[in-house]
From TrEMBL:
Domain Histone deacetylase intervals: 35-324
SUPFAM superfamilies documented for this protein: Arginase/deacetylase
GO annotation (BP), single: epigenetic regulation of gene expression
Annotated protein name in UniProt: Histone deacetylase 11 isoform X1
Keywords: Hydrolase
A GO MF term: histone deacetylase activity, hydrolytic mechanism
Cleaved signal peptide residues: none
Record PANTHER family: HISTONE DEACETYLASE 11, HISTONE DEACETYLASE HDAC1-RELATED
Name of the gene this protein is made from: LOC110088055
CDD domains linked: HDAC_classIV
Family matches, as Gene3D superfamilies: Histone deacetylase domain (3.40.800.20)
Gene Ontology CC, one term: histone deacetylase complex
Length: 363
């Protein structure tokens, strides 16, 4: 019996299937600047979309923080306890774990309550947003979490600024709660290998993973690579022409191989030329074109798509993400009314198939 959660509450039809909360943004006495990640990029994306009159505060779905019970759908209690300080004896371990995950060494010396409030709570809220967006994607045909995409975190280990396994959680929630959802495809186009969800779904044949990444950078997780069903390894400095040709061909092949009920698209912008961690050389227009390719493929195959924004370590990535979403809207790939109608048709088709691993929906 699934636990009671607030993350699967119904959303008014007046809202876009776009999930966000101001609580996503991390401001931590300037310490966030010690990591190359732009810890306020999510709010900047939303502001650009509001300036373009695509959304308003009232038309966006407000993300909720994932509770411990929500997180336990994937995470071990031992791992979650390691993110908290219960006693003075556990202080050293907690400090080391959180400092390692966030890649901000001074976290070693800060009190747990402050790190919970300023770093881990924003990440839990983004995680709740991804779970909420999964349900919305099935209902509306598409959904976008302006945050999330913590693909280096698995059930019992975090890393690479990823403390919670939001992709794994969104998929597990769908399998447990929505009738007819029994297969998922992850298309991971962040510059880094998505070793977290790969470890979580290593033995789960319901989840098909496609991963396109720079073969020479973090995490280089050879064990996790065994879970990748469609692997594309890139070289340093890969540029638009080669990259877009590979994405288009391989996304199409992956979606042809397995008929899934949901696509989870990890749309990292760390592929951008000049990114200090990605090592690739994709232009801003190349990122916009990449997102269009993935959304067109999902629409062609009539598969609902959930997009999360994942990595991206330059100040200009917020503008590029916003421009990409505006492009998707301008060409009709994300549209409130159209998506709702297509989602209705897709649900009818889904319900006509015999679900294999699904259970009745419970809230």
């Amino acid at each position: 019996m699934p636990h009671k959660t607030e993350l699967y509450e119904d959303v008014p039809p007046t809202c876009w299937p776009i999930v966000y909360s101001p609580d996503y943004n991390i401001t931590f006495m300037g310490l966030e600047k010690l990591h190359p990640f732009d810890a306020g990029k999510w709010g900047k994306v939303v502001n650009f979309l509001k300036e373009a009159k695509l959304i308003t505060d009232d038309s966006v779905v407000r993300a909720r923080e994932a509770t411990e019970e929500d997180l336990l759908v994937v995470h071990t209690r031992q791992y979650l306890n390691r993110l908290k300080k219960h006693t003075m004896e556990s202080f050293e371990e907690w400090s080391f774990v959180v400092a390692t995950i966030t890649e901000i060494p001074p976290v070693l010396f800060l009190p747990n309550f402050l790190v919970q409030r300023k770093v881990l709570r924003p990440l839990r809220t983004q995680t709740g947003g991804t779970i909420m967006a999964g349900k919305l994607a099935i209902e509306r045909g598409w959904a976008i979490n302006i945050g999330g995409g913590f693909h280096h975190c698995s059930s019992d280990k975090g890393g690479g600024f990823c403390a919670y396994a939001d992709i794994s959680l969104a998929i597990k929630f769908l399998f447990e709660r929505l009738e007819g959802v029994s297969k998922a495809t992850i298309i991971d186009l962040d510059a880094h290998q998505g070793n977290g969800h790969e470890r979580d779904f290593m033995e789960d044949r319901r989840v098909y993973i496609m991963d396109v990444y720079n073969r020479y950078i973090y995490p280089g997780d050879g064990f996790a690579k065994r879970a990748i069903r469609w692997k594309v390894e890139l070289d340093w400095g890969t540029e638009d022409g080669e990259y877009l040709q590979k994405v288009k061909a391989h996304v199409e092949s992956a979606l042809n191989e397995v008929k899934s009920d949901i696509v989870v698209y990890n749309a990292g912008t760390d592929i951008l030329d000049g990114d200090p961690l990605g090592g690739l050389a994709i232009s801003p227009q190349g990122i916009i074109d990449r997102d269009e390719i993935v959304f067109r493929a999902a629409r062609k195959h009539k598969i609902p798509i959930l997009m999360v924004t994942s990595g991206g370590y330059q100040k200009r990535t917020a503008r590029i993400i916003a421009d990409s979403l505006l492009n998707l809207h301008s060409i009709g790939l994300i549209d409130k009314e159209l998506a709702t109608g297509e989602a209705r048709d897709a649900q009818v088709e889904m319900m006509s198939r015999e679900p294999k691993d699904a259970r009745p929906a419970r809230h």
